[in-house]
Amino acid sequence: MGKKSDVQLIVDGKRTDGRAPEDVRPISMRLDVVSRANGSAEVSFGKTTAVAAVYGPRTLFPRFMQESDTGIIRTRYNMAPFSVVDRKSPGPDRRSTEISKVVRLALEPSIFLEDFPKATIDVYVEIIQADGSTRVTGINAASLALVAAGAPMKDMVTAVSVGKIDDTLIVDLNGTEDQNSQSDVAVAIMPRTDRITLLQMDGVLTKDEVMTVLSFAKENCHKINEQQKKLLLEKYTGE
Ligand code: UDP
């Protein structure tokens, strides 16, 4: 990553899966996919599918982990062994530990945790199919699942990846693009205020490119958030 790839990823203005640079893959979203959870959702961006399940707010045990003046959120991101063609060895690794942490940091500012002293909200993100951009897909699913769980929130969190391949900025990297990208940026925002809650960048971009990446990310996050809100309105108002 970082260098221009030997593989040509854009031919006649089209990416390997036929998309234009600014296109996201087809997005599908479903609520209530884990009946035992307080809230759950499944989100797919093309062949990347994340399931998120939320438990809580509930009293945090062991007791010594409780915060007397606020609740906490705990997150676990996991890629299923069958989610990629080359089986992924099960269990936590450095990457999943890092992503669990950044998913927590991306979601934390959106929740009124101070309303739940001594409590935890547990968020599980399981990637059941991985083809690039799994952390942002997981954040979109987790945000829906938090709303469905009734967690009091300041705003939703919506995320997308933007990157650079063949010297061109693109939205929503697939797995091949991720592996061969010159740069890969994961962005999450709270759409009502455009506050950025996640910004991670691999590779190299100029300052102007970073600004364009952020505007692409915001524009697409707003579109994705409309889809999230539409689904929630259907559930809660039947509209
Ligand atoms: N990937 C994989 N095996 C792994 C980890 C990742 O095949 O053990 C692939 C998967 O398609 C993933 C992509 O590499 O979506 C990019 O991973 P990255 O760490 O950049 O995070 P992501 O873009 O998924 O948030």
Q: Any idea what the CATH superfamily is called?
A: GHMP Kinase, N-terminal domain
**DSSP summary, beta strand count:** 11
Terminal-residue CA separation? 45 Å
CATH topology: Ribosomal Protein S5, domain 2
How much is the average pLDDT? 96
Question: Biggest sheet, open or closed, and with what strands and sense?
Answer: 5 strands, mixed
Q: Please tell me what the overall shape is.
A: globular
- Per CATH, the architecture is 2-Layer Sandwich
Number of domains: 1
Instruction: Work out the helix count.
Output: 4
Structural class: alpha+beta
Give the CATH class: Alpha Beta
Strand composition percent:
25-35%
Strands of the biggest beta sheet: in what spatial order? 3-4-5-7-6
